[in-house]
Amino acid sequence: MTTKSAFCMVVFFLQLCIVNGQGICERQMITEWRTEPKPTIIKWTPRENVCSDFYTECWNMNKSILGEISEERNLSIPQICPLQLQLGDSLFISSEPSFQSYGMNLVNVSKEEFINCPRAGFLQEQLIFVCQIKGLHQVDPNWLGVGTHYFAELHKRGPLLCNMGLRLNVTVKQQFCQQSLGAPLCSGHGKCLSHIWEKTYNCHCFSQYSGTFCQKFDICSAKPCHNNASCTEKSELSGDSYECTCPPKFSGKNCTEIVGQCQPSTCFNGNCINVTPNTFLCECDKGFTGRKHLFLLSSSLSV
Ligand SMILES: *[C@@H]1O[C@H](CO)[C@@H](O)[C@H](O)[C@H]1NC(C)=O
Ligand SMILES: *[C@@H]1O[C@H](CO)[C@@H](O)[C@H](O)[C@H]1NC(C)=O
Ligand SMILES: *[C@@H]1O[C@H](CO)[C@@H](O)[C@H](O)[C@H]1NC(C)=O
Ligand SMILES: *[C@@H]1O[C@H](CO)[C@@H](O)[C@H](O)[C@H]1NC(C)=O
Ligand SMILES: *[C@@H]1O[C@H](CO)[C@@H](O)[C@H](O)[C@H]1NC(C)=O
Ligand SMILES: *[C@@H]1O[C@H](CO)[C@@H](O)[C@H](O)[C@H]1NC(C)=O
């Protein structure tokens, strides 16, 4: 049997196998940046891990909640489950056992060629591997720079295998979550995340933190100003200073002092303490708080 006829038989056999063999790709909509790179192995076979419908099979999304993404809405081509990698991850290709005696190769193609499958006339330098491969091979990291890459099966006899789904969409993402090299991700005050349609990983800060790297503590969100005073962050530099603008009758750094002097029974359930010649505080009894009977810890009032 010639190599050619054997190859045709393999293809014929595979075509029988994939009649209804389309699968749904597993994926999370939002992923968190891993601190360690990870290897991924893609099995290059049309028999499993092949999807056709862009949204429901390849990206496992609920069509009814899609509205904002319109571009690829009608893109339904059989392909190996699209892949998203972190910059630095390694990618291995393992070939279908029945291809192994014939060998296979992948070619880096444009989006249009990915959609239509490459025809003759590709450039030698776009071949992912230097020769036909059998078994497990690593893709040179030079092919896996930041961005979206399209690889397609290439065979002397035309685009048959590519048409059956042997083409891969790989998106490599980098993170912008570190203020400087070696700094903790999101300054330790947030998570470094990427939604499936985003091109990069970015910080999502815990409450009270803000900034590209969650490096800013939002002092006003801790509500240091009392009695309905308004809070303004004072200096970008220190990041932890604020100013309270007190409503009339209130005073002090945190607007906790009342303008005036202690009078008998000014404070309903607590002790009255003069702070300055014209402001006073109510030190509330246990279990009482309030606007006019103000709260301060007794410890701060000793002396
Ligand atoms: C898709 O979304 C709709 C509306 O949000 C919901 O009713 C339906 O159950 C979802 N289907 C799947 C398969 O998640
Ligand atoms: C989707 O369909 C529209 C019109 O039907 C067409 O203009 C567009 O090129 C198609 N997109 C793709 C990616 O095939
Ligand atoms: C892969 O192909 C695309 C589209 O033709 C091209 O823009 C890109 O430069 C190629 N990648 C490499 C590493 O040659
Ligand atoms: C390839 O995957 C990216 C997401 O990683 C997606 O935005 C793009 O539309 C896909 N391209 C094709 C042609 O399916
Ligand atoms: C103002 O509030 C801050 C934090 O809530 C506290 O640390 C500080 O001691 C208060 N200052 C005064 C003068 O009450
Ligand atoms: C706080 O101020 C807002 C407007 O600045 C006002 O509507 C509200 O009544 C005030 N609340 C109290 C408890 O004084």
Largest sheet: 8 strands, mixed
The helix count comes to: 4
Q: Helix/strand/pairing class, anyone?
A: mainly beta
Total strand count, please?
A: 19
Beta-strand fraction estimate: 25-35%
N-to-C terminal Cα separation, in Å? 103 Å
Provide the gyration radius in Å: 32 Å
Stated plainly, the CATH topology of the largest domain is called: Immunoglobulin-like
C-alpha geometry: rod-shaped
Name given to the CATH homologous superfamily of the largest domain? Cupredoxins -  blue copper proteins
Disulfide bonds: 186-203, 205-214, 246-255, 262-272
Protein name: EGF-like domain-containing protein
Domain EGF-like: 173-215, 216-256, 258-294
InterPro entries: EGF (IPR000742), EGF_extracell (IPR013111), Notch_Cell-Fate_Det (IPR051022)
Structure report:
With 303 residues, the protein is mainly beta. The protein folds into four domains: 23-175, Sandwich (Immunoglobulin-like), CATH 2.60.40.420; 185-217, Laminin; 218-258, Laminin, CATH 2.10.25; 260-303, no CATH class. Helices cover 10% and strands 32% of the residues. It contains four helices and 19 strands. It has helices at residues 3-17, 54-58, 111-116, 160-163, and strands spanning 30-32, 39-44, 50-53, 76-86, 90-95, 105-109, 136-138, 147-154, 167-176, 190-195, 200-205, 209-210, 216-217, 230-233, 242-245, 250-251, 257-259, 270-276, 279-284. Strands 1, 3, 4, 6, 8, 9, 10 and 11 form an eight-stranded mixed β-sheet that branches. The longest helix has 15 residues, at 3-17. The model is unreliable at 292-303 (pLDDT under 50). The structure holds 2-acetamido-2-deoxy-beta-D-glucopyranose (6 copies). One 2-acetamido-2-deoxy-beta-D-glucopyranose binds at residues 108, 110, 126, 143. Residues 1-21 form the signal peptide. InterPro entries: EGF (IPR000742), EGF_extracell (IPR013111), Notch_Cell-Fate_Det (IPR051022). Pfam families: EGF, EGF_2.
